[in-house]
Design goal:
By secondary structure, this protein is an alpha+beta fold. It has a single domain (7-261), classed as Creatine Amidinohydrolase, CATH 3.90.230.10. The chain has five helices and 15 strands. It has helices spanning 7-28, 37-50, 121-139, 147-159, 253-261, and strands spanning 54-55, 71-75, 78-80, 94-103, 106-115, 164-165, 171-173, 180-184, 201-204, 207-209, 215-217, 224-226, 232-234, 237-240, 247-248. The strands form four sheets. The chain has a five-stranded antiparallel β-sheet. Strands 1, 2, 4 and 5 form a four-stranded antiparallel β-sheet that branches. The protein has a three-stranded antiparallel β-sheet with strand order 3-12-11, with no helix packed on it. Helix 1 (7-28) crosses helix 2 (37-50), helix 1 runs parallel beside helix 5 and helix 3 (121-139) runs antiparallel to helix 4 (147-159). The model has no long low-confidence stretch (mean pLDDT 95).
C-alpha cells in the first residue's frame, strides 16, 4: 500500500529529515584518522536526543537480532548496515554514515559517504559519481513518471563509468514507517514499475561499487559487504514526488559547510 502524504505530513517529515541532516554534519566534524566508529555513534545519539528525536535504527529488526546502534557506519568494502564499535578509522578510508530519526510520528532517513583524511583520485571519482547519480534519479521523480525511470537514470549513469550497481539493496518509501512501499531500486528499465504520483515520499539511495555489484552479509547478520572486496559508496536523500520537479526534504548543505573548512577531512561533490 502506497500512502500519499498531505502537506502537513510532509512538513513533519521535513523536520525529521533535517534532524538527520544536522546529525550527519555533527558526526562529520569528528571524522578523522584515529577515531572509533563507536564514538561517532555516541555523538549522533546525543545530538538526536538534544533535538528531541528518536534514533530510528536502534532496536530495528527481527527479535533477537535487533540493530544495536544509532548509526549504520560502513567502511570501505562495507556497503551498508555496518555496526559501530571499536573499529578505528584510518587515513584514506571512506565511510558511509546512514542515520534515521523519528519525531512526531514521522521518519527521516538518509546517508552520506565521507572521506577520512586524504584519499586517492580513483576513490573520489567513485564518490562523486555515486553522489551525482543520486540527483540523476531524483530528477526523474516527477508525477507521471515511473520507478523504472529513476532506477534506469541511476544505473546508466554509474555503469557508464564502469561501476557496479548493487541489486540486492534498494531505496524505499518513507513516512509513518521507516520503510514503506514502493521499493526504489537503483537499476531497471525506463517506463517500468510503479507510476509516480504527487505526494509520494521516497528515500532514494544509490549503493555503488568499484567492482562487482554482488554483495554478501557478514556473520553479524547486518553488515553487507561487496563480494569482491571492492570499495562501495552510498548516498541517500528523502524526497517528495511533485509535478514537474521533485522536492528534496533532506540536505547536504550542513556537510558542505564543514567541507569548506576541512578540505582534507570531508569530501563534498
Amino acid at each position: 500500500m502506497i500512502y500519499l502524504k498531505s502537506e502537513s505530513e510532509i512538513e513533519k517529515m521535513r523536520e525529521s529529515a533535517l534532524i538527520v541532516s544536522r546529525t550527519l554534519a555533527e558526526v562529520g566534524k569528528h571524522i578523522e584518522p584515529g577515531v572509533q566508529t563507536g564514538t561517532l555513534d555516541r555523538i549522533a545519539e546525543e545530538y538526536i536526543d538534544k533535538e528531541k528525536g528518536r534514533p530510528a535504527f536502534k532496536g530495528y529488526g527481527p527479535k533477537g537480532n535487533e540493530f544495536p546502534a544509532t548509526l549504520c557506519i560502513s567502511v570501505n568494502e562495507e556497503v551498508v548496515h555496518g555496526i559501530p564499535g571499536e573499529r578505528i578509522l584510518k587515513e584514506g578510508d571512506i565511510v558511509s554514515i546512514d542515520c534515521g530519526v523519528e519525531k512526531n510520528g514521522y521518519f527521516g532517513d538518509h546517508a552520506y559517504t565521507f572521506v577520512v583524511g586524504n584519499c586517492d583520485e580513483e576513490t573520489l571519482k567513485l564518490l562523486k559519481t555515486t553522489l551525482e547519480s543520486l540527483y540523476e534519479g531524483i530528477y526523474q521523480a516527477v508525477h507521471g513518471n515511473r520507478i523504472g525511470d529513476m532506477a534506469n537514470a541511476i544505473q546508466s549513469y554509474c555503469e557508464a563509468e564502469g561501476y557496479g550497481v548493487v541489486r540486492e539493496l534498494v531505496g524505499h518509501g518513507i513516512g509513518k514507517s521507516m520503510h514503506e512501499d514502493p521499493s526504489v531500486p537503483n537499476f531497471g528499465k525506463k517506463g517500468k514499475g510503479e507510476r509516480l504520483r504527487s505526494g509520494m515520499t521516497l528515500a532514494v539511495e544509490p549503493m555503488i561499487t568499484m567492482g562487482s555489484y554482488k554483495v554478501k552479509t557478514l556473520k553479524d547478520g547486518w553488515t553487507i559487504v561487496t563480494a569482491d572486496k571492492s570499495l562501495a559508496a552510498h548516498f541517500e536523500h528523502d524526497i517528495v514526488v511533485r509535478e514537474g520537479k521533485a522536492e528534496i526534504l533532506s540536505t547536504f548543505d550542513y556537510i558542505a559547510e564543514l567541507s569548506d573548512k576541512n578540505q582534507n577531512i570531508l569530501y563534498y561533490g
